Amino acid sequence: MMNERTLKTHFKKNDWYMSFTQLIALGVNRNRINQLIEKRFIFKITNSLYRWMGVDLDGHDDLYDIAHIEPEGVFCLYTAMNFYHLTSFMPSYYYFAIPRKKWMRKGLQKYPVVIKKWDDKYFNLGIRSFKLGKYSIRMYNLEKTVCDCIRYRNEIGFNTLKEVLTTYLYSNTDKNSRKLTQYAKKMGVDQKLKEYSRLII
Fold this sequence. Notes:
Layout: H1 4-13, E1 17-19, H2 20-25, H3 30-38, E2 42-46, E3 49-52, H4 61-69, E4 74-75, H5 77-83, E5 94-99, E6 113-118, H6 120-123, E7 127-132, E8 135-140, H7 142-151, H8 153-156, H9 158-170, H10 177-187, H11 190-200
Parallel strand pairs: 5-6
Antiparallel strand pairs: 1-3, 2-3, 4-5, 7-8
Helix pairs in contact: 7-10
């Protein structure tokens, strides 16, 4: 039987998360998994995903859990807006996009997350892997996030959109105006981008 120290090494190599299938492949059967949960060595996130207990995730436990439950998903809107310091508003939910045809995985409903289902032309644009704390997550890049804000302007409100655009245009040193224009055209919000930018400039 694999001891806890050796198992911890395997979890660490996998950024502290392992699936049921991975554990079975290591020779850790269901009874042993239940023992590890009872002894508080591992934490059950879903029926098929586990995290090592007590590991320091820099306060991003929920965010990392969400990302591991649905590896294909991408953090978006308010979560990305806060990552890029585009708004001072701090939502109580994470915003997470998945392909429209994909079912929401079981377990996500336990977390403070708003799921957005997007068509491929919106979902696949501008996905990047970013370092957050010690580990990486998938999040839309800066320009895609600004375009998403314009697209969801009725949901986030004009004041927040104005703050996002003002911060992007005047305070963000990493902005790429050419990329912003390209994304806006692909997403069909280029006229709105021009309209709202004129109100700010």
